[in-house]
Design goal:
The complex is a heterodimer of chains A (about 400) and B (about 140). Chain A is built from 15 helices and four strands. With about 400 residues, chain A is mainly alpha-helical. Chain A has two domains: about 30-45 and about 200-270 and about 310-395, Cytochrome Bc1 Complex, Chain D, domain 2, CATH 1.10.760.10; about 60-195, Orthogonal Bundle (Cytochrome Bc1 Complex, Chain D, domain 2), CATH 1.10.760.10. In chain A, the strands form two sheets. A two-stranded antiparallel sheet of chain A has the order 1-4. In chain A, helix 3 packs across helix 8 (about 180-195), helix 6 crosses helix 7 (about 160-170) and helix 6 crosses helix 8 (about 180-195). The longest helix of chain A has 21 residues, at about 5-25. Chain B has one domain: Immunoglobulin-like, CATH 2.60.40.10. In chain B, the strands form two sheets. Chain B has a five-stranded antiparallel β-sheet. In chain B, strands 5-4-8-9 form a four-stranded antiparallel β-sheet, with no helix packed on it. The chains are: A mainly alpha (about 400), B mainly beta (about 140).
């Protein structure tokens, strides 16, 4: 048997590799039926408008208009220097462009974006709020944030002619003398407005719809790196265990290995503290300000349980518009999406003690896989249209 | 296929346990239900709504029957993901509807995958746990 010279064999191998490898790298991934089903669950987008049965002016034009005016009104704050819009800016994806929040004091957590907030069921990084309106009360009263009061909020609604008129249109009655109720009503208007902040459709949504419809041509417009990243997201990465559904979140809480300490000797207990605050709040959904007579909106609050494992857990954020953030994690500790992917690739199992198969584990991603995952996550971003100024309340 | 399995379970349950049959209706009102057994109990249950969605609250409707014919009580309903060894983030409440019927409210499967539903019942002093595996996609 005649043997080919080694150099010739090597040359042939190299040539074959040079021809085949790029073609393989450029070939669109195959999508199994099971994968298509999983991708389909991340849509359609946008969902129907959010409605909150615990808020009787949710979804009403008059309630939304009043809420937007209040959202931009610095008079809700104690020193009349800050409004909700100071930290939740339309031009900064309804956040503040900072790693950590800064109001009247420096804060320990990142200011979350308000995109799609109306579809949540727990609010704040620790879930201390069980409705968007109750969550909207917290920063108004918190002395570190707006430093306002129920008296200030109610006086504003009673004494400002435009706001009083807007209130009457939204609630069907003039603002009365019950300060606490007026504070709650102001928060319900704020919630009605915030629930309208729905992020735009993205390139991912076009791909998702095309894939589900079997439109290969339209699906092929989605980048190959993005497709590979998506396969990783729903496959080996198991990211969709928590980042599921059209908003890419299950709305619950997890410990993903971020440091507990906010400064030496002081920890952020996360969900554990949030549940304590929820139980103590007179504005939770078990209280008298819930407008939902059926009681169904309070089911989670009624049944939520406080577990030791809640310590160090924080809300699983949605991932739409994720690439537009200037910092990541509840403490703003990671600067880029690349850092986030690196975190999940290298997270220490020692930090994430688990009795069973851990949900968060070191993924050990290659450089290429990390790039693909970031490419997919960036495909969840889209430029929103400019946000118009609110119409006058009572022209 | 799933429906066939459920129907089979219903037929099998009725055939295998004649003494309780007359007093233990296994149809829970929607023409379907799941049945689990032990030496002492037969329990029919179904979710409400029938389709459980990840992250959405649901209830379980029960009919608890005992082989002895004595009154059975549903004591605790819970669920864990055995693989990850974590419970639900919510603790269901139980309301008796009379005649062995119960409703457990406030369950939420917050992740897709394998959940083991545990059903603690008693008809006297001793509590017995029956389990059922549920896979949610």
């Amino acid at each position: 048997m005649r043997r080919r010279p080694l150099t010739a064999a090597l040359l042939a191998s190299v040539l074959v590799a040079a021809i085949v490898a790029p073609a393989a790298a450029q070939a669109p991934p195959d999508w199994s039926e099971a994968e298509i089903r999983l991708v389909g669950r991340h849509g359609p987008w946008p969902p129907p408008p959010a409605r909150d049965p615990s808020n009787r002016i949710s979804g009403t034009p008059a309630g939304i208009a009043l809420g937007e005016h209040l959202f931009n009104d610095v008079r809700l704050s104690g020193d009349e220097l800050m409004s909700c819009a100071t930290c939740h800016q339309a031009g900064r994806d309804w956040s503040d462009g900072r790693a950590l929040g800064k109001a009247r004091a420096d804060l320990d957590r990142r200011t979350p974006s308000l995109w799609n907030v109306g579809y949540s069921h727990w609010f704040g990084w620790n879930g201390a709020g069980d409705s968007l309106w109750s969550q909207s009360i917290r920063p108004i009263l918190d002395p570190r944030e707006m430093g306002g009061s129920r008296e200030r909020a109610s006086r504003l609604l009673r004494e400002d002619k435009q706001l009083a008129c807007g209130y009457e249109r939204a609630f069907g009655a003039k603002p009365d003398g019950d300060d606490e109720r007026l504070l709650v009503d102001a928060a319900k208007a704020l919630a009605a407005f915030q629930a309208t902040l729905v992020s735009p459709r993205t390139r991912f949504d076009d791909f998702r719809d095309a894939l589900v419809a079997g439109d290969r041509e339209a699906a092929s417009r989605y980048g190959l790196a993005e497709q590979r990243g998506l396969q990783l997201f729903i496959g080996a990465g198991n990211c969709n265990a928590c980042h599921l559904g059209p908003r890419f979140t299950n709305g619950e809480f997890g410990d993903i290995g971020i440091a507990f300490f906010v400064r030496p000797g002081e920890v952020d207990s996360g969900r554990l503290g949030g549940l304590a605050a929820l139980a103590a709040s007179p504005f939770n959904l078990l209280g008298r300000y819930n407008d939902d007579a059926s009681g169904s909106s309070a089911l989670r609050t009624q049944h939520v349980r406080r577990l030791h494992s809640n310590f160090g857990e924080f809300r699983v954020p949605g991932l739409r518009q994720v690439g537009r953030s200037v910092a990541y994690m509840h403490n703003g500790g990671l600067a880029t999406l690349e850092d986030v992917v690196r975190h999940y690739s290298e997270v220490s199992p020692d930090r994430l003690h688990s009795d069973g198969v851990p949900l968060v584990r070191s993924l050990g991603l290659s450089a290429g896989q990390s790039t693909d995952l970031v490419a997919f996550l960036r495909s969840l971003d889209a430029d929103p249209p400019p946000h118009p100024a609110p119409p006058p309340l009572c022209p | 296929m799933k429906l066939l399995a459920v129907l089979f379970a219903l037929l099998f349950a009725n055939a295998a346990w004649n003494p309780a049959r007359a007093d233990c209706p296994l149809d829970l009102g929607r023409g379907t239900g799941l049945v689990i057994f032990s030496d002492h109990y037969m329990i029919a249950f179904r979710p409400d709504p029938l389709r459980i969605e990840v992250g959405e609250p649901f209830a379980l409707v029960f009919n608890v029957c005992t082989k002895s014919g004595s009154a059975g009580e549903l004591v605790v309903v819970d669920a864990v993901m055995p693989e990850h060894k974590h419970t639900m983030n919510y603790r269901p409440s139980i309301v008796s509807k009379g005649d062995g019927r119960f409703r457990a409210e406030g369950l939420v499967f917050h992740m897709a995958g394998h959940w083991e539903i545990s059903i603690d019942v008693r008809a006297g002093e001793e509590i017995e746990r029956l389990t059922h595996d549920y896979y949610i996609k």
